[in-house]
Amino acid sequence: MSAHKQRSSHETAGASGSPGPAPPQPQPQPQGEGEEGAAAGRTPLESAADAADELYRLRDTFFPRDPAEKVASLRAHADAALALLDALAPEQRKSPHQRGVYEFLRGKILDVFPDYQKEAEDHLSKAVYAWLCLGNCIWKKGDLAAAKNCFSLALSKGSNKKILCQLSMLERSMAQGCEDQALLVEESIKHAKEAVMLDIKDGNSWYNLGNAYLTSFFVGGAWDHARLHHSVKAYQNAEKDETMKLNPDLYYNCATADKYLENYERALRGFEAAALIDPGLGADTEFQKITSLLDKLETAMKGQSRSKRLTSLLSSLSDVNLKSPHKKATIRILSEGFNKEVAVLGKVVRWIRHDNVAPLYYLIEEGDRVALLQPYYRILDTSWKEKRYQFKSIRVDFPEQILVNENVPASHHIVRASIHAHNKP
Questions:
Q1: Among 30, 116, 179, 255, which has the highest number of CB atoms less than 10 A from its own CB?
Q2: Cα(151)–Cα(19) distance, rounded to whole angstroms?
Q3: In this structure, what DSSP letter does residue 278 have?
């Protein structure tokens, strides 16, 4: 029997790279009159744009153990980039285009931090073409409707994969606690697919689509495993993009999907990879929860032997009245995959307590009499660190598929699944 933990999926706005041992040091060098600027052939605004791009690369790739270290590094790089803009002569931002670029870059640099910055919004609102950055800034303020309006206005001027991805992410955020939750998530999937179609090699677009499907799985009641498979496939396509290979959130979210699919070996690899890139993400804790669960399952299985009690149990199951047309069966005669019109009979010996709320595991042999209708059967086989775990698993996804002493469980015994998605600036 499976149930699912309420948790947050991690969202990032762009690709990530190697964190490295330390961030590069900012080197503000106002251009224009200097020899280096002339030699490089870069205008002052172009140099400031380069500094802004480097600032966001730092944001997306530097993951120190102490979050304060990252904030300090961002502050130093932001100050250096702003210094380049401050060094511009008035005549170098005189034309409407130059003023627009200046306002856009200043707002973008100020908006690199996780918290909302009023000054960033003020500058971005003056750059008429900066709808994407302005939408992100307003999103941090909590005005989701205004942020969506910015993205929609940007898309009215032409399709753009980055804006489509941000709109998809925003719709997932808006869906939380909304009456039209399922509809908004479907819109999120639609816009994520549109982004992928604009550039099928873009890893961030695939990553965003994976997040959309993962959210859809939980919003739909955590039973449609096809959504999880779509999610994992999208994440795997994202990994083909070299710029995404060291994105910790990509590995974390893919591992989450694999965990709910009970693909524990792949989930362990994913959480381990995420923890190596960003130690502060909490992936090491998820990793430990899975290994602890596998150890407990192994111990529980070894502790149960085929005894006279089991023989007595199997003979007593013939007395179960299912009050349904399902054919009664034991685990030994199940087929791999879904077993339609079949009911597995058994008795619960033990609830396997572990650190995750989901999935719920029960060892069936003796205890309350249970019937699992149309179960999904598979043999789980996981190898990790020279250790191998093997056990038979029967999964059901709806409370209506469970009969306890010939009755459906009461509503207060049912765990519902949900997920919280948030923008990770």
A1: 255
A2: 30
A3: -
The answer to whether residues 68 and 24 touch, using CB atoms and an 8 Å cutoff, is: no
The dihedral over CA atoms of 16, 17, 20, 26, expressed in degrees to the nearest 10, equals -70
Q: Which among 293, 217, 219 is positioned nearest to 253, based on CA atoms?
A: 217
pLDDT at 17 over 60: no
Helix (H) or strand (E) run with residue 74 in it:
helix 67-86
Dihedral in degrees, nearest 10, Cα atoms 273, 278, 282, 286:
0
d(C-alpha 217, C-alpha 212), whole Å: 9
Length of the chain: 425
Query: What's the sign of the alpha-carbon dihedral 370, 334, 360, 413?
Result: negative
Preceding amide of 359 cis, omega within 30: yes
Contacts of 47 (CB under 8 A, 6+ apart): 29, 30, 31, 37, 40, 84
Q: Is the pLDDT of residue 388 over 80?
A: yes
For the segment 258-270, the average pLDDT, to the nearest whole number, is: 94
pLDDT band (50, 70, 90) for residue 424:
low
Distance between CA atoms of residues 125 and 148, nearest Å = 15
**Starting from the edge strand earliest in sequence, which strands make up the sheet with 376-384, in order?**
337-338, 376-384, 387-395
Asked whether 201 and 243 are in contact (CB, 8 A), the reply is no
User: Which phi and psi angles does 66 have, rounded to 5°?
Assistant: -100, 110
List residues bridging with 348 in a β-sheet.
364
Backbone angles phi, psi at 344, to 5 degrees: -85, 130
pTM recorded for the entire structure = 0.76
Which two three-digit tokens encode residue 132?
Answer: 């994407």
Six token digits for residue 60: 């997306």
Q: How far apart are CA 73 and CA 76, in angstroms?
A: 5
- Per DSSP bridges, beta strands 327-329 and 342-352 are parallel
What gap in Å lies between CA 229 and CA 375, rounded to an integer?
19
Task: DSSP for 200-239, please give it.
Answer: TT-HHHHHHHHHHHHHHHHHTTS--HHHHHHHHHHHHHHH
